[in-house]
Amino acid sequence: MPPKCLILGGTPRQVHEIQSCMGRLETADKQSVHIVENEIQASIDQIFSRLERLEILSSKEPPNKRQNARLRVDQLKYDVQHLQTALRNFQHRRHAREQQERQREELLSRTFTTNDSDTTIPMDESLQFNSSLQKVHNGMDDLILDGHNILDGLRTQ
């Protein structure tokens, strides 16, 4: 049976309960990890909707309490965004780990065969390219030699 994360109460308490559920994600088995992730995501979504209402209510507070109320709402919003990021990071690591396991299994179950007898290596283009480069190299050497000879001729005049 999957470990249930029971999340109740007010928003600050709910944030702390989500944090404890995040710790359970690491120890959850493969079947229940999705359930725990979904419960955490649902709670985070619920908190975000509550925070929107709290923002509206904080703007209706008396001026002397308004700044403190907004500060608390902003702190809760930051905490919930941090939890959302942590959940996404966990999901990303889990997906990468599952993909590595699939690739490992695929590699281990693959049957290898010998090469076909029709194996050929297309070398004609490579040989032509190499000979063209060799001709260009020789041509540059000739140009440099001609330039050197011209300069020597000018010096002797």
UniProtKB/TrEMBL annotation:
Gene Ontology terms, MF aspect: SNAP receptor activity
Biological processes, Gene Ontology terms: protein transport; vesicle-mediated transport
Topology versus the membrane: Single-pass type IV membrane protein
Gene3D superfamilies, per database record: t-snare proteins (1.20.58.400)
Keywords of this entry: Coiled coil, Golgi apparatus, Membrane, Protein transport, Transmembrane, Transmembrane helix, Transport
Primary localization: Golgi
Organism domain of life: Eukaryota
Alphabetical list of InterPro entries matching this protein: GOSR2/Membrin/Bos1, SNARE, v-SNARE_N_sf
Keyword Transcription: no
GO cellular component: Golgi apparatus; membrane; nucleoplasm
Family: Belongs to the GOSR2 family.
Annotated protein name in UniProt: Golgi SNAP receptor complex member 2
Biological source species: Homo sapiens
